[in-house]
Structures are given as structure tokens and as C-alpha cells.
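We emphasize that the prediction below concerns an isolated chain of 450 residues; any contacts that depend on oligomerization or on bound cofactors are therefore not represented. The input was used exactly as deposited, without trimming of termini.
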Amino acid sequence: MDQNTVQDRPRADADSDRQDVEGIATPLVAPTLPLQGGKNSASPNNGIARSFTRKGELLSRKLSRLAEEVWAPEQTKQLRPFQTQEVAALLGVTERYVRQMANELEIPKADAKPVGRRVWTLDEISRLRIHLDAKSPGRYLPHRREGEHIQVLNFATFKGGSGKSTQAVHAAQYFALRGYRVLAIDLDPQASLTTMLGVTPELHVGPQESLFGAISFQDDGDPTKLGEGRGPRPMREVIRQTYFTGLDLVPASLELAEFETESPRALMLRHPSPFFTRISSAIDQVADDYDIVVLDSPPQLGFITMAGLYASTGLVVTVHPQMIDVASMAQFMTLAGSLMEVLEGQGGRTVPLDFEKILVTRHTPSDQPQMAVVTFLRSLFRTDVLTATMVNSTAVADCGLARQTLYEAVRDSSNKRTYDRALQSMDGVNAELEAEVLRVWHRTNHRAED
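Result of the prediction step, given as a C-alpha cell string:
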């Protein structure tokens, strides 16, 4: 499919753009009218509400058009194939044994072009994993066992641009690649996690199809009407499979912002289902289907962030190693602690986190001021700061522009070293998080036998 640029669009579209722009620009230069008292003020039609609304509608309309041209609505995101060497590393077996199992399972051979080497889809890797686990139960499928509770990992911060969503999507894919059953839930109306997993909110997420559909107060927040309205949708109805085998998604959209206005009304009307329990209750509906849930929280402390914190078993706070970002993290932790204390005092349970970690992101190890900040954090919080860091890399940025992760990108000779260095960093972070999960489950590693 051709990827049309703005300049490539038909002249009619360009003329339409100019008309739309002229339509929003004219009111900005309209003369002011005298009001009582001799003071001048802009016409009501020139206020910020009208101006921002029209600009926002124009921008959304044009972005949707561009998205339809570059990423057609019927187009689905596809995951690259994996080399035999990668498959062997993921499964912990030799390449020869991988090929032997393929013959046993009669998996048809697919060759990578133009090299001609055999490649594998993630579905085929999953078949191999199931085949291995049938011979050694519990060794190759690290699913939860009896007595092991679901792990809900929440990636949160108070400041945008810290790499929170980037780390969240990489963690979700990392766990899926290792055989865990993973559910990614996007709590951020900006929907970065949703977009990275191949879903464009403007095109693919309709009303009540985001997380909002499963947690909203559709009975109008009136306890006397509880059960009379439609009520929230079952969680399973808003979960969708992704192109990434083993990883499901509950998407976000701008509709999710309505939770911030519904929740205070529900509090005022003393709704019997408090806002802070809505996400945990939704997860409970599908907990038996998953081992790991990854939450991507918005960079603010609103109602949905608090509900996400209440549902969490593990918390990962991302921070860029600059003092202004560290100060923002201090505010986040202080305010979050105060708010959660209020919730606990209002009848909420004490949230028992299995672990909480600080993750240094966008890190440049050769930058001395950054290293000083990292050393400062480690001196204060010691093992609560992950040993691995998410390095600042052009490979991560390039993948983001293509709406890909490092696990999806295809290496070539021009970027192989940069890619490998970034992937090693990301794997290091995710391996530490996996170790925390296994520690909670009292396992040495995910291949430990019963």
C-alpha cells in the first residue's frame, strides 16, 4: 500500500484543508466590542472554548484522514517472523531440536526472502512450546499454578516523556514471548499502548469498546437505579486479541477521560461500587485466563490512576535521570501515598504490593550528571531501584516512529549494533521484573519443575 504524504493528496483535499483553516483563523482576528465600564473583551464566539474546540476538531479530522491513507482501517499489524536461532533461545533448546520438533509436528517450512533461511511465526513458536511442555509439564509453559495469584504490573509516573508506555509495551511482549498469558490494559486516554499494539483509537475503538465500557457507571451513579440501566459491559467484551500471540489488549480512547467526571458524581451519590474498585473488579472477571496483567497509567493522579494503583500487585515508577524529573517523582509518590491512605480510610483495603521498583529510563551511561542522579537514587532506595536501566537509544526512537517495538523490528547491517545494545538493555529490565514475579510465586525460574 502506498504511504501517501500530505503533499500527495488530491487538490480537493488541499482546498478543503485551506477552507477549514480559514474557518478557524477568521474569528481570531475579529475586532473586540466595548462592554459596560469601557473595558474591551473578545466576542463570545472568539473565546478559548470555541477556538480550541474548532482547532481540535480540525486536527482530529485531518489526522484521521492521514491515518486512513497511511494505515487503512482494514489493514492489520503483522509481526515479523523469527529466525531459528531466536526460537531456540526463547525455548531454551538447540536449533537442531527446533527443526526436529517442526518435523514431528509437520509445521510447513517458510523461508525468509531473499536469504532463504527458515523463519517462524509466533503461533508456530507457541505450538513448539506446547509440544515441549507436554513432555515436561510446567517446564515450558510458565502459567500460574495453584496458589499463585495473578500479577498486575502497573507502570506509572507523574511526568510525561519518561518512556513509561514504551517500557509497558515491551514488558507485555517480553512476557508473552516467554509463554506467559498476558493482558495489557491501557488506562491512558492518550492511548499510546493501544496504538503500539496495532489499534488506532480513532478508527478501531468505538463507544464502550475501550476500558471505559467495563468500568463506567452506566446506571448514572444512582444507587437507587443500580441494575436498571445497562451497567458496565463484561470485561471479556472489551478484550481483543492482538497480532502478538499470547498478548491480549483492553484498549483506551478519549472516551476513557469520562471516568474522571463520572467518578466524583458516583461518590456524591454514594454509589455502592466505589470508583477505586472498578478496575480490580474488571480484572477479577478474567483473572483465570491470564498470568500477567500490564497496566499503563496516565501521567497524572486522577481517579483512573488511583483505581489502577488499587488493582496493582507490582508498581514500576519510571524516571528520567534529571533532577527536575526526580522532583516530579517525589511529588507523585507523596501525593499518591496520601490519596491511597484516604481510600483505605474510606473502606478500601490496604493495597498489598508484592514489589515496587524505580526504573531509570532514557539513560545515557556516559553522561556524568545522569550518573550522579542514578547514584543518588540508589543510595536512597537501594534494591528498590532496578539494576538494569532503559538506555537512551535511537533504535527505540526509530521503532516508535514505525509503531514498532524492539521485539518487532527487523535488524539490518546499518543498525544491528545499535539495535542489539538497546535490546540488551530492555531485556535486562524485563528479566528483573520477571525475577520479581517468580520470587512472589516462590519459583527459582519459570522452567523449575513441580
